[in-house]
Amino acid sequence: MxxxxxxxxxxxxxxxxxxxxxxxxxxxxxxxxxxxxRAHGEVLAGRYETGRAPYALDWNPGEAPHALCxxxxxxxxxxxxRQLFDNPLLxxxxxxxxxxxxxxxxxxxxxxxxxQAPAVGWRQNALAWRCTIFNLVSAWVALDDVAQEQGxxxxxxxxxxxxxxxxxxxxxxxxxxxxxxxxxxxxxxKRQAEARAGREWSVVSCxxxxxxxxxxxxxAIQGFSANxxxxxxxxxxxxxxxxxxxxxxxxxxxxHMNVVLLRQSGGHAGDLFRGEAWPVLFPRGTPKSxxxxx
Length: 294
Hints:
eight-stranded antiparallel β-sheet, 294 residues
């Protein structure tokens, strides 16, 4: 759906289960949106109001970015970003979409795609999360208006039903059409996905207004078109896990930050990703004693 925010009803949940994405409408008012924009700029500049740095960043703070910039767990550095998790729509929407009694944070990622930056190639989020089950969802929050030519999210509907692919076009950021659409003709992932699905894929461009949110399944094939404009595209992704998400050892993602954090807290294979590093977002009001420890 588009327009004003609401929780997904059963029709919306079935749409998500069929297509692998769902537009949630506008969640952020003007004041909340402006606070998140300020927090976004502070984190990118390396100014951390909490005194704690994010888990990881892929460029030097304060430098002008020339390609997509990503910050992992930006909420460690910003109270405004952390407050976004208290939005009651976030946890309950994810609970309905995943059909789970509890929703915990998996991680957040802060993004900036500068003007004239290339596309972000096709991939599945689950390819970086093989250390757990494949039933996570992501809420992508637009901090600016984002049309196709500004680098909007693009999703292949139904692709979350095709299983995990070990191929990704993520690193091939130079390939995009003049329209800003991700180029498909040379995609290794596209060839493999179509062979497995037995049909050609189609693409949906999720154009959003600032403050709007779109959810996607972790197995959905997705990417971002090129930002052909002159201004940056700012956004925040909140990745969410269901109640039964546990550590699967021995994968190529054993070095994922959540595995590192789990081991630091004494966790082992088969343990839930549950504790201080993964706050409970639904149900709301969960006592802190229930979120501390694995």
